[in-house]
Amino acid sequence: MLPSFKYLKELYYALAIVIGIIVLGIFGFMTIEGYSFSEALYMTVITVSTVGFKEVRELTLEGRYFTIFLILVSFGTFAFTLSSVSKYVITGTFQRYYKKYKMDSRINNLEGHVVLCGAGRNGIEALENLLAHGQEVVVIEMDGDIANELNDQGLYYIEGDATEEEVLLSAGIEKASALVTALPKDTDNVFVVLSARELNKDVRIVTRCTHDSSESKMKIAGANVVIMPDKVGGARMAGFVINHNVNRFIDTVSLRENGETYLIEFKVGELPSNNNKKTIGNIIDTLDTNCKIVGIMSADFNYVMNPPNDYEVLPKSQVFFFGKPAEIKKIKDQVIMD
Question: Which of 41, 72, 89, 184 has minimal Cβ neighbours within 10 Å of its Cβ?
Fold first, then answer.
């Protein structure tokens, strides 16, 4: 786990004390002995570090008393500070902080990424699928051990409470394309949805829900999709009893490229066509692929399943392709990205 400020306060306090002693020494030697700044700095450093080089010139009685005072005040401080700095470097704390600093800089430059709140069982499953699709994901997680694992894997993460607005902002919610919140408590998920919708009016929000009574609240708060894992799991188990062969077939349809078959969606604006009026037929002909277009979702979220070749695909629609990974890759290589 990356150390907190509390863990490092020993180092910060030591550095602050050393700086304070040096400032005190410079001011004292300049005032009492009339030294220049460089002379006073030299005398202060050789005094507090107990090196004992030759003085700039003979000290007055007042100067000797001040030097004694400075030695007593700074006694052990330099050694303590050097020990703290050495521990900070040798234990790898500095390297981890530098790595986190670079990662935070990259997060600040992200656009169109996904913010994932909560890296529990549901969150990790969502993360794996998003990464499998090449999505850039920033994970927000409170558990320091999990955050440390994400850090070791080189993944983008923010260690903090996703219900806090500053944490969402540090994850780049204002420039994100989607938010997935998989926190264990419905109240926390509702709060995250409210905050995210306020910070980004256009972000697509998918949230986990445990209780039926919370589903309507989450939609009112601004969630686009509400998922109830327990209900989904129960429906899947029942499905294997009622239509077991259908469900086995569905299991062969993977959302990942390493599956035997692959289902993916594209915006109609990304797909090439041999004329301005895009139909299912001319999109397929232009792409030269054996994949099948199995469905269309219009801009108003109406679905057309197994559309005919002469079906006109209107702007802002989504087109769903089904095929083998190699054929899907051919489409990806040909699409015109906005």
Answer: 72
